[in-house]
Structures are given as structure tokens and as C-alpha cells.
Design brief:
InterPro entries: SseB_N (IPR009839). By secondary structure, the protein is of the alpha+beta class. It has three domains: 9-155, Murine Class I Major Histocompatibility Complex, H2-DB, Chain A, domain 1 (2-Layer Sandwich), CATH 3.30.500; 180-320, Uncharacterised protein PF11572, DUF3234 (Trna Endonuclease, Chain: A, domain 1, 3-Layer(aba) Sandwich); 325-441, Trna Endonuclease, Chain: A, domain 1. Helices cover 34% and strands 21% of the residues. It is built from 14 helices and 16 strands. The protein has helices at residues 12-30, 78-87, 136-145, 155-162, 186-195, 201-211, 259-269, 282-291, 312-320, 325-333, 336-344, 381-387, 398-408, 426-441; strands spanning 39-46, 51-59, 62-70, 98-106, 112-120, 215-219, 243-245, 251-255, 277-281, 297-300, 308-311, 349-354, 374-377, 392-397, 412-415, 422-425. It has a five-stranded antiparallel sheet with strand order 3-2-1-4-5. Strands 7-8-10-11 form a four-stranded mixed sheet. It has a three-stranded mixed sheet with strand order 13-15-16. Helix 1 (12-30) packs antiparallel against helix 2, helix 8 packs across helix 9 and helix 10 (325-333) runs antiparallel to helix 11 (336-344). It is flat, with a radius of gyration of 24 Å.
Length: 442
């Protein structure tokens, strides 16, 4: 994105109108929808390196989420999105974090189109498909490019910029009440507790499986903070994650499943201060770790009875084999609409587990006197290994896997054997396949 608001206040309404016309034209030329739709909705979310979009078709009071993902850098609509963000800028309120452009069609078969937009300047952008939330770095860059009055910075943004003390006792609780700690991923907390501090491959796989699709906490207290106004971390701040030097000389990146362990570990080394905590998508942190040559291992909840060390090759195995974080994230949030959209998104994959020497995928176990009829598919190799490490991994485009299940004549497909999971009846899967194929043929 280009930096600094580029238009004078008097120019902005015209720039918004120009941008909306061009974005609407691009949307109409891009979406291959059958005639008769009511609305095409384009949700826009710029992050630091890419612009993510989500397209939804509304027809007969039903919404069908189509493609979700980043725009290619050469996409002709990117300059228009930038124009819309700059044109919507206001010196008091800043500009939008996300925008929604709606094209309405009336009077089919010769439709008349209307275009409108809504701008989100306050609410935290949602994580659609595992691309991660708006990080502190991205938020600082946004506010540096589009300054707003201090009282217009939302509370979630203020917490992310300044770090947050998450273990405070509420004003209404008694002095002896236990503090409430933030746990961003309850599945990870459960997996760590079950390890009982025993270090083996099975426990590492379980922890990695639980991490994917969720979030973790990081201690950034050792960062160089350069304030900007009332913001503790201005755009010039240098953010550093906490790294421990182990007795064997290795450097361990510290991640946390709960703010409790951030405070406990921080207190052991900095008794007079409180930690500054950030929350981020685990997959994103894992990718940064793989690219960082100065860190050798990850340690989750250092010093806790269940502390877990994960080596770089183990993280690489999870991220470099096919995986579908978007579907896993939808399972964790329990959002069926996003789950279905994640299965038909471009590039989406699903995995199957196959016994060595065999070709048939594994099924959900049933009593001996019954025939298995629910096929198991998975979002990552870690999910398969957590079920049975002897299984071989097969991967394919998600839609092809669902079609394969239909060809086998199964009654349902279960995504992941271990929670979070979801079971989709074949009727629902056939409807999903039909919608995708109809859209492709239009």
C-alpha cells in the first residue's frame, strides 16, 4: 500500500466514487455467477504485505461464500482499493481497517446495477482463512500512514499497541480471588497438560496439531519501544520476542499457551516489572521461526511442569507438508459457513490417512458388526500422525477429496479424527460440489 493520505479533503468524495466504480466493474468481470443474483459482496482486508478479499454471492436470501485469499500483486484492482482507502480518510477518524463493497442487481434478465460501500474503522478485522490477525506491527504501520485522533483508536488496538496486563483481578472480585488469565487456544492448553512434561515425538505431534489454526502469546518486553503520543509502541519501535539461551547453547523462542505462564516466567527474570504481551497466529509465528536462523528450537510455557520443546525440523515437517489452516481455524471457531468456504477456496487441500501397502482411506471406527460409512479426512499431517503415526499421508485438492468420498458411496465425511472436528453428511457435500461446479460452468 502507498503511504500517507494522498488526497485533500475536497478531493476525497470524487476519489471514492471513482474507486467504487472501478472496483464494482472488476467484481462483475471477475465473478462467474449465474444470472439472477441479488448482491455481490466484496470484503477487503489489507495486511502489511498483501490485500485479502472475500467474495460472497447473495441469491434468493441465501449467501454463498466464494473465493477467499490474497490478491495477486499485479491485480488491476489493487490501485483502486488503495484509492478507496485514501479517499475514505478522515483526519479525526482515520481510514478503514476493512471495507465492504456491495454491487446490487435488479430487474433481471437485463439488470440494473447499484454500488455502495461500508467502512470499518473501529472493529478488529476477522481472521477469514488463517491469514492471521492485524498484528501490532501492521497496526502501527496503518496508524502511521493514516493518523487519527487518540480517542479514535479502538480499545483492541490500544491493547495490541501497548501490550496488556491480562492477569488483573477484576474490580468486583475479592482480593483473594484467583486472577483470570488469557488462554487463546484451549486445545493447546489441553494438549500440553496431557504431555505431563514427558518429552517424546507423540507429545510433540499432539502439541503441534493443537497449535495449528489457533493463536499463541509472546513476551515482547525486551523490545525497544519508541512511543508516539499515548501509544507505547510507535512505528519506530523494534519488536523482539523473548528468546532463552539454553544450557546446551541453543536459542529457544518462547511461546505461551496462557498469560499465567508469561507472568510466571517473566517474574523469574524481571521481578520488578510486568511483561508486555502480544497474541498472534501460531502458523504465522511458526513460519517466522523457520525463517529465523538465530533461533534453534521453540519452547512453549518455559519453566512450567508441562513445558514443551519443538525442534526446527519438526516445525518444518508440519508447515512443509500440505496443510489447511483455514479449515482448522473454522473448526476451532465453530463457524460452518467459513468451514464450507475454506473447503472450496483456491488451493485448499485435504489429507487422507492410508495404511501402509493399502490404497483405501481410513474411516471412523465402528463396532465389529457394522460397516464403516464415515470417511476420515484431515487438515494436516500432524492430525494424521496424532491418530496413528503408522498411517501414510495422501493429499489432494479439497474438492477432489470430497468428490472421491462421494464416489466411494460413504454417508458422511469427518474432518479430523480428534477435536476440533466436524462431520458433514454427503447431501451437504453434494450441494457444495454442485454450487462450485455451476459457478465454474457459468
Amino acid at each position: 500500500m502507498n503511504h500517507k493520505p494522498r488526497y485533500q479533503a475536497s478531493e476525497r468524495p470524487a476519489m471514492i466514487e471513482e474507486a467504487l466504480v472501478q472496483i464494482g466493474s472488476w467484481l462483475l468481470s471477475t465473478v462467474k455467477a449465474e444470472p439472477g443474483w441479488n448482491e455481490l459482496v466484496l470484503d477487503i482486508k489489507p495486511l502489511s504485505e498483501q490485500i485479502f478479499v472475500r467474495i460472497t454471492e447473495s441469491r434468493d436470501d441465501q449467501d454463498f461464500v466464494g473465493s477467499i485469499g490474497p490478491l495477486k500483486k499485479e491485480s488491476p484492482v489493487i490501485p483502486e482499493i488503495e484509492k478507496l482507502q485514501h479517499g475514505a480518510y478522515d483526519e479525526r477518524e482515520g481510514t478503514w481497517f476493512t471495507a465492504t463493497v456491495v454491487v446490487t442487481a435488479k430487474n433481471w434478465p437485463e439488470p440494473e446495477y447499484e454500488i455502495g460501500a461500508a467502512y470499518n474503522r473501529q472493529d478488529e478485522p476477522q481472521d477469514w482463512e488463517g491469514e492471521g490477525r492485524l498484528t501490532a506491527r501492521e497496526l502501527r504501520a496503518h496508524l502511521a500512514d493514516f493518523p487519527r485522533e487518540e480517542n479514535q483508536i479502538p480499545e483492541w488496538g490500544r491493547q495490541r499497541l501497548n501490550g496488556r496486563r491480562l492477569a488483573e483481578v477484576s474490580e468486583t472480585s475479592s482480593p483473594s480471588a484467583a486472577p483470570e488469565f488469557e488462554i487463546p487456544n484451549s486445545y493447546l492448553s489441553t494438549a500440553l497438560a496431557r504431555t505431563e512434561g514427558i518429552r517424546n515425538d507423540a507429545n510433540v505431534i499432539s502439541v503441534l496439531r493443537a497449535s495449528l489454526g489457533g493463536e499463541v502469546l509472546l513476551d515482547i518486553s525486551d523490545s525497544d519501544f519508541v512511543p508516539l503520543g499515548n501509544q507505547k509502541m510507535g512505528p519506530q519501535s523494534t519488536i523482539r520476542y523473548r528468546v532463552l539461551r539454553l544450557n546446551n547453547g541453543l536459542r529457544a523462542l518462547c511461546l505461551y499457551s496462557s498469560s499465567q505462564y508469561v507472568f510466571e516466567e517473566h517474574k523469574r527474570h524481571n521481578a520488578e516489572s510486568e511483561p508486555v504481551i502480544l497474541r498472534d497466529h501460531a502458523g504465522k509465528v511458526f513460519r517466522e521461526f523457520l525463517a529465523d536462523e538465530t533461533c534453534d528450537v521453540i519452547v512453549i510455557d518455559p519453566g512450567a511442569p508441562h513445558e514443551c520443546f519443538i525442534e526446527k525440523p519438526q516445525v518444518g515437517w508440519v508447515l512443509q507438508t500440505p496443510h489447511n489452516d483455514a479449515t482448522k481455524n473454522a473448526l476451532m471457531s465453530g463457524n460452518m459457513q467459513i468451514l464450507l468456504a475454506s473447503l472450496v477456496a483456491p488451493g485448499a487441500v485435504l489429507l487422507m490417512g492410508v495404511h501402509p501397502g493399502g490404497d483405501s482411506p481410513v474411516f471412523v471406527p465402528v463396532p465389529a458388526d457394522q460397516e464403516p460409512d464415515t470417511m476420515l479426512v484431515f487438515t494436516s499431517a500432524a492430525e494424521i500422525a496424532a491418530l496413528d503415526p503408522s498411517l501414510e499421508v495422501r493429499s489432494a485438492p479439497a474438492l477432489d477429496v470430497l468428490k472421491f468420498a462421494d464416489q466411494l458411496g460413504v454417508s458422511a465425511v469427518r474432518i479430523n479424527a480428534l477435536n476440533p472436528s466436524a462431520t458433514l453428511p454427503m447431501k451437504q457435500i453434494r450441494e457444495l460440489i454442485s454450487i462450485v461446479e455451476s459457478a465454474a460452468a457459468a
